[in-house]
Amino acid sequence: MAVAPENAALFGDDSAFQAALKGLDPGDPAVFAGQLASFGDWAGAQQATLAHRFVEVAATEGPRAARAGCEVSRSLGPRLGLPADAVAALDDVYERWDGLGIPAGRSGEEIILVARIVHLAEQAVLAHASAGTRAAVREVARRAGGHLDPELAVRFRADADALLTQLAEPDLLAAVVAAEPGPHAVVGPGGLEELAAALAIVADLKGRWLLGHSAHVAAVVDAAAGTLSEADRVALRTAAHLHDLGRVAVSSAVWDAPGPLGAVDRERVRLHAYWTDRILRRCPGLAPFADVASAHHERCDGSGYHRGARGDALPLAARLLAAADVLAALTEPRPYRPALDRDAAARVLRAEAAAGRLDAEACAAVLAGGAVPARRPRPCDLTGREVDVLRLAARGLSNRQIAAELVVSERTVGHHLAHVYDKTGRRTRAGAAVFAIERGLPPG
Questions:
Q1: DSSP letter string, 182-203
Q2: Amino acid 440: pLDDT
Q3: CATH classification of 193-369 is 1.10.3210.10, yes or no?
Q4: Could you give the CA distance from residue 358 to residue 343 in angstroms, rounded to a whole number?
Q5: 3-class DSSP assignment, residue 334
Q6: Quick one: which H or E segment has residue 235?
Q7: Which of 8, 91, 144, 355 is least enclosed, having the fewest CB within 10 Å?
Q8: Strand blocks (E) in 16-170
C-alpha cells in the first residue's frame, strides 16, 4: 500500500502488479525468464512493455519501494496493535535466504525467523491455489536454499498434507483467529477509534491526492455532531475514519486519474463503498460501524451507491457523514481540479441539499461546524517552508514540480527536503505522507 500510486504509474494496475510480484523468482534464471515472458499480462497489448519496464526499473525502484513499506510499517504497526517482533518481521517481507531480496539484501539467519516462515507459507499457499498440494511441495522444494530457508522447507515437506489441509477451512480468517495462541491481542472499546485512525491512513495511501482525507472527514463530521452524545460522536468519528477503507480494493490508477473516468472505472469507484462494508463486516469489533461507514455515498433521493438507499432509510449519522465527505473532498485538491475555497464548497453543498440529494439539516450542521480542521503546531522544529516542501513531497511531487509550485529553485527544494528528512527521520514519500497526516499536516 505504501507505494501503490507509484506502482500504478509504472505498471497500470498496482493490485495486479503486486499479485504478479509475489511469484517472481530471480534466483532461478530459467524460471524467472519464463515468468517475465508473461509478466504484465493484465495490460493486454502492453504486456511486453511492462515486462521490459520491470527489468529496467527493478534494481532502483524495488529497494526504494521496500524501504517505503518498512517506514510505513514501523509508523503504523504499533498503532495497529502489532507486537514489536511482527513489526520487525515486516522489514524482511521482501528479503530472501540467498541474499537476493530487498531492501537490505539480508540473507540466511539474518532474516528474522517469523519472516522466513511467512515467506514459505506464502509460496506454499500460492502454489496450492494454482495446482494443489503436490505443486505446493514441488515449489517449496525448488525455492529451498534460494528464496526459502532450506531447513523450514524440509519441515514443510515432511508434514505438507496436514499443513495444507487447513486451507480447506470454510472460513480461514475465523480459523486463524481461533488458532491464535494466548495471550490474545485485543483492542478494547476505547482503542477502536485509534485503530480506525491508523487504518484510515492505510486507505488514504492508496492515492496521492487522498492523503489525510479520512481524518479530515472525521474532523468535519465531529464538528457537525455537537448535539449528539459523546458515545455517539465517538462512533461517528470512528465510522468516518473507516468510510474509505474499500478504496484499497481499487487500483490507484483510478484514484489518481487526471481526467474523466470510463464506464468500467466509474463502476470500480462505486464498488469501493461495497468493499468498505464487506471489510468491516469480516471483523466483529468493527462490524457495528459498517452500516454508517459504507453509506457515505448514499443519497436521500436514492441516486447514491452502493445500495441506492433513500433518505428515510438513512440514519442521521449516515446523512451527516455523507455531507461531511462531500465538503471535505471539495476543499481538498484532486488530480482533475484544485481545492475549492470554503464559500464555493458551501454553495455546492447547499445546491446538493436543494436538489434533494443530501440532507438539508445535515448540510447545515456540517457548514455550521466548519470545514477545515485546525492545524497543529509545526513538529520537529520544521520551518514553515520545510512544512510546505514536506506536504508536496508527501503527495509525490518531484523536486522540480515542488520548485515550480513554490516558485523557488530546484536546489533550494533539495536543501529543504534534506532538512525535512533529517528532522523527521523519514526517507521516503510514503513515510513522509504518514508523518504529515499523523501531525495534522495533510498534503495540500
A1: SSPP---GGGHHHHHHHHHHHH
A2: 83
A3: yes
A4: 18
A5: strand
A6: helix 230-242
A7: 355
A8: none
53 closest CA partner among 84, 28, 20, 86: 20
- The three cell numbers of residue 92 are 524482511
pTM (predicted TM-score): 0.92
Mean pLDDT of 165-178: 90
Q: Please tell me the chain's helix, strand, coil percentages from 3-state DSSP, rounded to the nearest 5.
A: 65, 0, 35
Q: Are 333 and 444 in contact (CB under 8 A)?
A: yes
Q: Is 293 strand, coil or helix?
A: helix
* CA pair distance 412, 230, nearest whole angstrom: 47
According to CATH, the topology of domain 384-438 is Arc Repressor Mutant, subunit A (1.10.10)
Q: 35 CB contacts (<8 Å, ≥6 apart)?
A: 23, 24, 25
Cell numbers representing residue 90 in the block: 515486516
> Across residues 408-428, what is the average pLDDT?
93
Selected from 1.10.3210, 3.30.1490, 2.60.40, 1.20.1260, the CATH number assigned to the domain covering 4-179 reads 1.10.3210
Task: Look at the chain and count its residues.
Answer: 444
**What would the grid cell of residue 283 be?**
471483523
Q: Which amino acid is at 164?
A: L
- Name the one residue in this structure whose C-alpha cell is 501531525: 439
